[in-house]
Specification:
With 450 residues, this protein is mainly α. It has 2 domains: 1-46 and 255-450, no CATH class; 48-245, no CATH class. The protein has helices spanning 11-20, 22-47, 51-81, 89-113, 115-121, 126-153, 157-182, 187-209, 220-244, 247-255, 257-293, 297-334, 342-355, 361-367, 371-395, 402-422, 434-449. Helix 12 (297-334) runs antiparallel to helix 13 (342-355). The protein is globular.
Length: 450
Amino acid sequence: MHDFCIDSDTQSSQFMRIQDHLGKITWTMLDKGLFMVYGLIRLYQVSLMSPSEFGLFALLDAIIIAISTLTDSFALNGIVKYGSRGGERAKFNMLITISHIGISVFLCGLIYSSRYQLAQIFNEQGIIAIAEYVPLLMVLTIPRLYFIKFLLRETKMREVFIANGTWFFTMIGMTVFFGNHYGHLTLDQMVVISCTGTGLGSLIGGMLSFSSIELSKPNTSIMREFFTFGAYQVAWNIPASIMRHLDLYIIQFFFGTTIVGIFQSAKTLYRFFEALIDGISGLYYPALVRMHARGDTVAEHAMTSKIISFTMFAMVVIVMSLSLGLGEWLIDTFLSSKYVMAYQHFSLLMICAIMLPMMISAIIYITRDHMKALLMNALISASMGITVSILIGMSGHSELIALGTMSYVFTFSLIGIIYAMKQKIFSPKDFFRAIPDTMHFVRSLMHRKT
């Protein structure tokens, strides 16, 4: 993606670099295609559940994702960050392994032991069952996340696709079976589906990544560097996770499980946009780490500007198509009449999608070790989102709850893009870079054919 031609004089060489990386790009896009396909299956799952039942599963899923995000930020991101330091990465890997398991176990234990208090706070007895399922799901999720990160470090995108494919296709098969056999899904059945798919995905991921895992005893300087980096990472991810995942608990507190289910069904469609950005980030992060390590600011600027511009251009096209009736058709086609209110939430979330490409600015903070600045951005953005969400809750207007997510995304994106400009790897005119670059690329293809 970042190898599209910089200008007309370098079109041929840049085109050849695309060819060099075409395999990894193809497998990456296929992998993210899995997430999009499963997004459609999730819509099928939603249609088989009542809004309140799906609301309970959404609350469970939010906890698993939040814990995974925190362990990923504190520990697992170090697998990629320190992966280029061949002589030391085995020491970092040991700390990563211990921290990943330790944080997950601690948070699971905290949630499990607080299950009755949480049920009382959120006025929902189903939260007791949710808290009891959390340890089981996390035991299966811990190795999957761990193994996938090593495959990403080595950019073994085909293997990533295989591991994730095992995870997703297992859940897809079980969903179709339960749907055909019972005609509906319950929370317990969704847990069985998730546990089976995650367990098999972890097993295959371990087999594919085993040769890449190196462990050795760390020294004091390694520990100091690792924990300093991890502390800032997890500090900014806590407020970010609140607005990306745990906002459902704010909705639960004010509006109950049924509204949680309806809003989350709209957010399931919105995940298609986030999956696209996650896929791009998966390529962008290790590449930017390497470029920054060798001090190649020209390449950093070229890659960053093109990724943001091309992705925003694609988002605008997609959102316009959805706004012309496709979005409402998706809701009517894939969800039952029980979720008719989901479209008004989705119509607001679509506006966020246009800003999502600028969220990759978080990676720029990380590669430059400007974690205090990233933390400040996250705190300001999350505070804005939480404040708006609470105000909407107090107002009683459940149809506006998507404004909390919008406030968070807009604030983070704006601050992040200003930071990227200060780092001189992005400028205002780069928003439109996709237009001339696409024209150059098309002319290049036409010239090659003639």
